[in-house]
Amino acid sequence: MTSRAKRRATLPSRRTPMRPSSERGPSIPWVPIAVVAGIGVVVALLAYVVWQSNQTSDSGPGKEAAIEGDKAEDLPGVFVDLQSIYDGYYGNRDGATTADHVTEAVDYSEQGLPPTGGPHWGATACAETPAESPPFCGPIPWGIYREPWPAESVVHALEHGGMAVWYNTTDQTVIDDLEDLVREKGKDDYLIVMVPYPDMEPETVAVTAWARRDKMPVSEYDRDRVENFLDKLKCRFNPESMPGKGC
Question: Which of 150, 186, 151, 171 minimizes the C-alpha distance to 220?
């Protein structure tokens, strides 16, 4: 053998030696891992669908019906059970509702006066004054009025997330103070209408939101009490997402 051949024979091989199978690392169970991952994806999708469903129900008629029927004693004013009076609930598409649009006079006496909800007018938009408005219009524009509007038009404003200040008094000091309060809240985009209401007991003022009422004789008028009602119930019932502070 030549010296060159001997050198080639003694040089170490550059190939990586193969290890016996007993020396190899553990095999990765790809199939079970894929199955577990797939189950995780399905569970996540189901959870998302349930979450979306809950979000939809919370923002739909169900939520407003729950607010309408809330008898919580820590809320200002008195709860008015519209759902029992009208044998239905707000947003009901399969039966009686508490917010029918009608084109006739409505007797609100069963729930007490002034009204806090129920059937109302909405056949067309109201103008700036009752005299200029077409029949069965609603809701009335937000603001202060010194002449009466039909209660049916005012109730539509309550359905739009607003509140109403009603008065039947000749006490100009009380009227001026109420107007000052409503103007002050209006600057902060509160949704309020203030109207004289001769169908209410004489020398009385009241404030209403959907299904809530606070009412007092003028002799017991308390600006802070009215303001507390407005602050606590602003936009609380707002099924049509009308714009306003806090909505």
Answer: 171
Question: Which alpha helices (DSSP H) does 60-131 contain, by range?
Answer: 61-68, 82-85
pLDDT (tens digit, 0 to 9) for every residue of the chain, 247 residues total?
444 444 444 444 444 444 444 445 555 665 555 555 555 544 443 433 333 333 334 444 589 999 999 999 999 999 999 999 999 999 998 899 999 999 999 999 999 999 999 999 999 999 999 999 999 999 999 999 999 999 999 999 999 999 999 999 999 999 999 999 999 999 999 999 999 999 999 999 999 999 999 999 999 999 999 999 999 999 999 998 888 877 7
- CB-based contacts of 174: which residues, under 8 Å, 6+ apart? 167, 205, 218, 221
Residue 25 lies in a domain: no
Question: Residue 167: which domain range?
Answer: 57-233
The rounded distance, in Å, linking the Cα atoms of 38 and 24 is 29
Domain total of the chain: 1
Q: Is residue 6 part of a domain?
A: no
pTM for the whole thing?
0.76
